[in-house]
Recover the amino acids of this structure.
């Protein structure tokens, strides 16, 4: 644990997060897929759901949905080696478009070390090949 993410006191309930992004907001403020994940995380007493993002903060689901609709393709981000530090690939219609580094942030969400611009460029290059 780092100083920015100290161990949680044992008396706190499972899933407690003092920095929950949903304490003040309504769930209706989010897309259906996001709301569903929030509910599932709560049901399992997990820390609040935070969607995977690219390195510039772009939510991956949003950019993937947009590109899939625009180009009529299937885009997936998959672990090739699911071990810590293992390889991750971005697939377009099942074919590797590029590799990407994957990290967990201190707040517990997934971050792919690629900007939205680079992500989109990788997808369009794979489609044009």
């Amino acid at each position: 644990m780092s100083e920015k993410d100290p161990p949680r006191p044992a008396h706190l309930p499972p899933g407690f997060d003092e920095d929950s992004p949903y304490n003040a907001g309504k769930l209706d403020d989010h897309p259906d897929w996001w709301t569903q994940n929030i509910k599932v995380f709560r049901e399992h007493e997990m820390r609040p759901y935070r969607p995977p993002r690219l390195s510039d903060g772009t939510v991956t689901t949003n950019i993937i949905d947009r590109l899939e609709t625009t180009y009529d393709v299937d885009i997936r981000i998959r672990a090739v080696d699911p071990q810590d530090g293992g390889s991750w690939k971005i697939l377009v219609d099942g074919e590797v478009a590029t590799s990407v580094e994957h990290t967990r942030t201190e707040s517990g969400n997934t971050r792919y070390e690629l900007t939205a611009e680079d992500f989109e460029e990788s997808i369009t290059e794979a489609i044009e090949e």
Notes: The chain has a mean pLDDT of 81. The first helix runs from residue 32 to 43. The longest strand covers residues 95-100. DSSP finds three helices and six strands in the chain.
